[in-house]
UniProtKB/TrEMBL annotation:
Domain HTH marR-type stretches: 20-158
One Pfam family linked to the record: MarR_2
Transmembrane spans: none
Annotated organism of origin: Phytoactinopolyspora alkaliphila
SUPFAM superfamilies: Winged helix' DNA-binding domain
Lineage: Bacteria, Bacillati, Actinomycetota, Actinomycetes, Jiangellales
Superkingdom classification of source: Bacteria
A Gene Ontology molecular function term of the record: DNA binding
Record's protein name: MarR family transcriptional regulator
Keywords: DNA-binding, Transcription, Transcription regulation
Gene3D superfamilies in alphabetical order: Winged helix-like DNA-binding domain superfamily/Winged helix DNA-binding domain
SMART domains: HTH_MARR (SM00347)
Length: 165
């Protein structure tokens, strides 16, 4: 079986036989897979009227446990976005009625972001379909292969500095 990346590698072998372009195969396939997966994931989010970043914030609040609330700083750390970006994103989610934003009564310099009932219902429905979709996308692999792939990708991400804060 030959894919588009194989064709690119063959062209490099023909044009630059002195160059070991093998890493392009791995990186190219990871990049292409990421783009394909993003498209597939966005289809589910579209059905729920969500952008990926909206789902990310709602899911971050949902998995934080009752009362589904985090400080803006906690949300920045968990959602891996900048504080400037999170402010704009929270504004948009507040406008949609999916979260509320209030000053923390225990620390007036802090803001609490909380899922509304509407936001909770939406993320609960979306996450079920999202996980089912991810199972479908990975069904080409056995569970052992999925575990192996997850371990290999974890090692790569750690080597690139993507470690827990």
């Amino acid at each position: 079986m030959v894919d588009n990346v194989d064709r690119v590698l063959e062209q490099w072998r023909a044009e630059r036989p002195d160059l070991d372009a093998a890493p392009m195969g791995v990186i190219g396939r990871i990049s292409r897979a990421a783009r394909c997966l993003e498209r597939e994931l966005q289809e589910i989010f579209d059905r729920h009227g969500l952008q990926t970043w909206e789902f990310d914030i709602l899911a971050t609040l949902r998995r934080s446990g009752r009362p589904y609330q985090l400080t803006a700083g906690g949300l920045v750390a968990s959602a891996m976005v900048t504080s400037g970006a999170i402010t704009n994103r929270i504004d948009r989610l507040v406008a949609r009625g999916l979260v509320t934003r209030v000053t923390d009564p225990n620390n007036r310099r802090s803001v609490l972001i909380t899922l509304t009932d509407q936001g909770l219902d939406l993320v609960n429905e979306a996450v079920e379909r999202h996980v089912a979709n991810e199972h479908r996308l990975l069904s080409v692999f056995t569970q052992a292969e999925q575990d192996e792939l997850a371990g290999l990708l974890r090692t790569l991400l750690e080597s690139l500095g993507d470690t827990p804060a």
